[in-house]
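Hi everyone, sorry if this is the wrong subforum. Our group has a chain we'd like a structural model of before ordering constructs, and none of us has done structure prediction before. Sequence below.
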Amino acid sequence: MHVPDGFINAPVSVATGALAAAAVAVSLRGARRELAGTGQGGGAGAERTAPLAGLVAAFIFAVQMLNFPVAAGTSGHLLGGALAAILVGPYTGVLCVSVVLLMQGVLFADGGLTALGVNITDMAIVTTVVAYGLFRVLVKVLPRSRRSITVASFVSALVSVPAAAVAFTALYALGGTADVPIGKVFTAMVGVHVLIGIGEAAITALTVGAVIAVRPDLVHGARGLTAPLELRTSPLTPADAAPAAAAAAATPDPAPAATAPRRSVRRVWLAGLAAALVCAGGISYYASASPDGLEKVAHDQGIDAKARDHAAKDSPLADYSVKDITDPRLSGGLAGVIGVGATLAVGTGVFVVLRRRRNAADARPADTGAPAERV
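Answer:
Right subforum, don't worry. Here is the predicted structure as tokens:
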């Protein structure tokens, strides 16, 4: 659903650019809390998602290369907003998808540069907000279990894709450059993206389910899933011992970190990186070559007549192939591996800086109001 340059006029592109910039700024502040394990949704295991945030961005980049057929002559691919929000939190999720879109636009000429605000608004903000909002509602009404997390992931991801299609239609109604009946655009976009949403839902549920199966503590959306420990006393326990045992259980551990060692995320990180490299470097060669949902609708409705050449069309990695390498499998695979590496580096860099700034802020002594000593 990458919107190219020329589909949306300048005023709406500028407005969505401002909206995207504001949303990213808010997400930068919110992500500090999510990565540090504080604030709403924080808790045990929250701080351990920081090393995985960059990996989530790289994984989304890789899986977006795997277009799957959804109808005659049409394909779809993962948007990733639901997956990112559930794994690492909604604020961090917005940043993950935004990093992916930035790398795709700058390096691979995928999604217009003047339309970057449109794409971030549509594919990062709308999908994340809709998916995570619905996910939280479903988690509250469903039984507290791992299966419920997977079901909620499936449904929220499914709904997020046609929601993005509706958002694009609204933006096109405000600033579309081609004279096309909006009713036709709406029907075509929502119809095909409901089908794409099924694929999005399957990928999201399988990925979330796989991580929950091995490390549920690393899934932001599964926080609080484990039921609190209950103290049960034996009928043979002396009567005067039961109150003392209950009081001991109710007393918080003054140093939980000393008795609950942190588990390493290295294995999960390596497994995720390997999966991303295999998807981008190998499986992507077998992805559907049919146009995706937006491209198909744009062609059928005449919207693509207003498309402009991408500013990075001469990039050495344009169209996900390495320039001057004639073997398509090698060219595409190498481009995918480069993309995963670049996205991982940029994403990890962003989240490491955010985490360090949060830690530095927490380490500052509180302001006592006393005047600073002059040296």
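For your construct planning: Residues 328-363 form the longest helix (36 residues). The first strand starts at residue 68 and ends at 71.
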